[in-house]
Design a protein that fits this description.
By secondary structure, the protein is α/β, with parallel strands linked by helices. It has 6 helices and 10 strands, in the order αβαβαβαβββαβββαβ.
């Protein structure tokens, strides 16, 4: 996390859903105690209750919430901090319910694999109708790594990019990969959100 912050990450993610990267709210608070206020702390949830999300926001000091489950727009609108709603993109098709989330940030991701919350695989960028994303704030995730992040940014012109497994070696965050990812993404002036372990 220190490497990400020192190299200019604008967001830091904490996974509160079932995952090998899952942390508790208390662990997130401890891990982020030295993160400057200019860096947004984002909590990733999958079909959690509003009470659980609210408690985690309070304990961990979250600035944003990323929803990776079946959460509705009515649910998202009740969350006290800004919301990023993730959508798995299959065959390049944007789900119809993206439109309901236009006032929130959306996250374009590959469909989930073992756990909801992303698979680390790239979706078919070239099949996405980019014109339909006009007016949206959106992040791109799914299979991003230091080698392809600049291409993703050039292709999508997104609000930001989101990475987790793409900056790992043998399942652990790799400081060299984090630094290179951030360096390559900053060349094109966007934001990024590495997830913390």
């Amino acid at each position: 996390m220190k490497t990400a912050v020192e190299n200019g990450a604008s967001h830091i993610g904490f996974v509160f859903a079932k995952s090998k990267r899952q942390v508790t709210p208390e662990q997130a608070r401890q891990l982020s105690k030295d993160v400057p206020k200019s860096v947004k702390k984002v909590g990733l949830f999958v079909n959690a209750s509003l009470d659980e999300i609210a408690q985690t926001i309070k304990i961990a000091g979250l600035d944003m919430v990323q929803l990776h489950g079946d959460e509705s727009i009515a649910f998202a609108n009740q969350i006290a901090v800004p919301v990023i709603k993730a959508f798995g993109i299959k065959n390049g098709k944007l789900p119809s319910d993206i439109a309901a989330f236009k006032n929130h940030v959306i996250l374009l991701d590959a469909p989930p694999a073992q756990f909801a919350g992303g698979s680390g695989q790239q979706f078919e960028w070239e099949k996405v109708a980019l014109s339909k994303l006009s007016g949206y704030q959106f992040f791109v995730a799914g299979g991003l790594n230091p080698d392809n992040v600049s291409k993703a940014i050039s292709f999508f012109q997104p609000t930001g990019v989101d990475v987790s497994s793409g900056v790992e070696t043998d399942g652990k965050k790799d400081v060299k990969k984090i630094s290179l990812f951030l360096e390559n993404s900053k060349k094109l002036s966007t934001h990024d959100m590495p997830e913390a372990d």
